[in-house]
Design goal:
This protein is α/β, with parallel strands linked by helices. 37% of the residues lie in helices and 23% in strands. Strand 15 and strand 16 form a beta hairpin.
């Protein structure tokens, strides 16, 4: 079904809206569209900071239809654009009508619409102007769907960002061009798909992968939001992974009333913080030394090496702790000039057998590692950095390093410590 330009005009969209006691409704080919809202919470700030607008659809017979099914019926680009604009207009009307004084409004938009080139600036400007909602209050949430031209999509997203709108990439982790879209678009927020949230509660390995994924997205300049949070275990695991924002049924069902949808969220987040702090306080950690112990061990080992130049002897002062796995030393440009001393010989380490091409490590250069750089900046002080991937053990490790002077030169004395089987971070 084709539509004229008039059908896509802002005034035409407003004409489709009807005020009811339960909020604004919109008519779309006999179907009735309405809005519900789900709160977005900031873990750190312990409060609701935004609201995602979700579409609810009832056909002429009173049967509920999923929004996805409705959009799938839009065969032409013009039809998809009409539905997309109508939904955003409806959501904004319902959001503003409830007098929400602060917080973001998350509005979904499909790449198909952005990719079409039909996203006119005047529509979104008219939307903000008519409803009196500043662009900085709106997060345009790009659904994770394929597009014909990622570069074009990135340019459109960049246009919106320069007009103060925030951009979120939705359903990260489900496929298509996830990483490519993040690198190109540089979104303000990346939303992790619920499948990744479920993984966060599984094994320690999955938990560490989520931690690294969040860290990587932070380094790419994005805040990270986990959607589909339904259990306390998932929430606690995401808090450990340093997630920024969460949303999901754990905090209540989406509701037409924003106040109702958000009613219990802050108290639940306060309770989650109490459990998180208590768990951190009581968590058993029998084999992991604290930083003070690590500092003493590393300084003792470094002093022994500085005095004798014997790495084997110096390593024995450190390897008395089970968490310590490898001792090595570099010169002032990061070159390893002696073989590492491990807690066990390489031939008894199955990981070392698999990583055989990486041994021996002599002449390796470790100057790119943060622990080396930090140690050189402050000689005599122990720098503990991590977690990072160990090219010796094939798993995450922390490395403590201290720059010290031998009779001949300045060296950096380094010790790798591994995580325990539960993925506990050393304190």
């Amino acid at each position: 079904m084709s539509h004229s330009h008039h059908d896509l005009s802002f005034d035409s969209l407003l004409a489709r809206l009807t005020a009811t006691p339960g909020g604004w409704r919109a008519d779309y080919h006999g179907a009735t569209l309405s809005s519900v809202f789900q709160p977005v919470l900031s873990i750190t700030h312990k409060r609701v900071v935004g609201y995602e607008a979700l579409l609810r659809v009832v056909d002429a017979n009173g049967t509920s239809i999923s929004p996805t099914a409705l959009f799938d019926r839009a065969r032409s680009t013009a039809e998809a654009l009409l539905l997309d604009r109508l939904a955003r207009c409806l959501h904004t009307a319902n959001f503003v009508a409830q007098g929400i004084g602060d917080g973001w409004l998350f509005l979904n938009v499909t790449p198909r619409v952005l990719d079409s080139g039909l996203v006119h600036q005047d529509f979104i400007d008219s939307l903000c102007s008519h409803f009196g909602l500043p662009p900085k209050r709106i997060v345009l949430e790009v659904l994770e769907q394929p597009t014909h031209d990622e570069a074009r999509l990135a340019r459109v997203i960049d246009m919106f960002q320069h007009r103060e709108f925030l951009i979120a990439i939705d359903d990260f982790g489900t496929g298509f061009s996830n990483f490519d879209r993040v690198w190109r678009a540089r979104p303000d927020i990346v939303k992790l798909d619920r499948s990744l949230v479920e993984r966060a509660t599984r094994s320690g390995d999955d938990h560490r992968i989520i931690y690294h994924l969040v860290s990587m997205l932070h380094q790419a300049g994005s805040m990270v939001l986990a959607e589909g949070v339904e259990s306390e275990d998932a929430l606690q695991a995401l808090m450990e992974a340093d997630i920024d924002f969460v949303q999901g049924f754990r905090f209540g069902q989406p509701h037409a009333s924003i106040a109702h949808a958000s009613l219990s969220a802050p108290a639940m987040l306060d309770a989650a913080w109490s459990r998180f702090i208590e768990r951190r306080r009581t968590q058993p950690n029998p084999v992991q030394p604290g930083f003070d112990a690590i500092e003493r061990l590393v300084l003792a080992g470094a002093a022994a090496f500085a005095a004798t130049g014997n790495l084997q002897e110096a390593a024995q002062r450190v390897l008395v702790v089970p968490a310590a796995r490898r001792v090595f030393v570099t010169d002032e440009i990061g070159e390893q000039f002696l073989p590492s001393i491990g807690a066990q010989p390489p031939e008894r380490n199955p990981v070392a057998t698999r990583l055989a091409p990486l041994f021996p490590e002599t002449h390796s250069n470790w100057s790119r590692r943060p622990y080396f750089q930090r140690a050189l900046i402050a000689p005599g002080r122990v720098a503990l950095m991590g977690p990072h991937f160990s090219l010796t053990d094939g798993r995450d490790c922390y490395t403590a390093a201290v720059a010290t002077r031998t009779r001949e030169r300045l060296v950096v004395f380094c010790v790798d410590f591994v995580l325990d089987s539960a993925g506990t971070v050393m304190r």
